[in-house]
Design a protein that fits this description.
- 2 copies of one chain form a homodimer.
- Chain A is 46% helix and 16% strand.
- By secondary structure, the first copy, chain A, is α+β, with helices and mostly antiparallel strands.
- Chain A has one domain: Orthogonal Bundle (Arc Repressor Mutant, subunit A).
- The first copy, chain A, has a 4-stranded antiparallel beta sheet.
- In chain A, a hairpin with a 2-residue loop joins β3 and β4.
- In chain A, α2 packs across α4.
- Chain A starts with a strand and ends with a helix.
- At the A-B interface, α1, α2 and α5 of A face α1, α2 and α5 of B.
- Chains A, B: This is Metalloregulator ArsR/SmtB family transcription factor.
């Protein structure tokens, strides 16, 4: 069993968005994280994984609901995994994707903290 | 004085991202809102406006910090205004942009609410 778990691209180091002017590097990092979310298929995949039992789902159960090919779904899941929102675990034939606890909350806190 | 104030594209009607599978229309709406944020220049502009006195800034003070042309800056500000994150008020020669109270918090709540 192999689990891929990458950290969020934008780290928790940084001041909230509204607190002080962002420098260019921090803006690039945060934009990259938000771009991973800013796609309707990826939002749907995240919501399906997150609302599954144990916040985990087999890739085999993610293809039909979004109505796209397996390679396309796998591409979107890879983007979400690389951005730190999902982990990927191989069990037997299939890959299972799980929501990374706290990852969405980290983005939310950065966006809205005073 | 004219103020442009548009509602967030994605309304507050919807269940949080992680609560249930998103339907295609809701996913489109939320992706559009997140795309408005998912750009380094727009994040920098938002952070400058938000951290200015009264969370408002003249477009004349936004051009130099991001190092882009006025038309480019105005384009990005228009995207943020149309997405509901900023208001635009014309006073004399200049346009002033202000953060919409609660707009970022609305996105954050949708992303992270249990």
């Amino acid at each position: 069993m192999t689990t891929t778990h990458l950290p969020l691209i934008a780290t928790t180091c940084c001041a909230p968005l509204v607190k002080e002017p962002l420098d260019a590097d921090a803006a690039d990092d945060h934009a990259r994280t938000l771009k991973a979310l800013a796609d309707p298929t990826r939002l749907r995949l995240l919501s399906i994984v997150a609302s599954s039992v144990g916040a985990e789902a087999c890739v085999c159960d993610l293809i039909e609901p979004v109505g796209l090919s397996q390679p396309t779904v796998s591409h979107h899941l890879k983007v979400l995994t690389e951005a730190g929102f999902l982990t990927r675990t191989k069990r037997g034939t299939w890959a299972y994707y799980a929501l990374v606890p706290g990852a969405l909350e980290e983005v939310a806190a950065w966006l809205s903290a005073p």
